[in-house]
Write a structure and sequence with these properties.
Number of strands: 0
Length: about 80
């Protein structure tokens, strides 16, 4: 991770995420769960520009990474819009 990102705390551990991801695949709730994942990651300090670190940390597939990246980007844009 880069500079200030190294001190960020996560709301979920890798094991929690993998367990949740397995449930997601079986439950067919991908869209809602991607939003929840992105919101949790955002609250934990992750941002869309840290995608390579997210992929490595959570062993994301290409599809998972793309969906989560898009959700994180949307959250960042909404948050930026509220701050302005």
């Amino acid at each position: 991770m880069r500079g200030e990102d190294t001190t960020m705390m996560l709301n979920m551990t890798e094991a929690d995420y993998e367990s949740w991801r397995d449930d997601l695949r079986c439950g067919g709730r991908e869209e809602y769960d991607n939003q929840y994942t992105a919101a949790s990651l955002y609250a934990g300090g992750w941002r869309a520009d840290a995608l390579p670190d997210l992929i490595e940390q959570f062993n994301l597939t290409g599809d998972e990474a793309e969906r989560i990246y898009n959700e994180l980007l949307e959250i960042e844009q909404k948050t930026k819009g509220k701050e302005e």
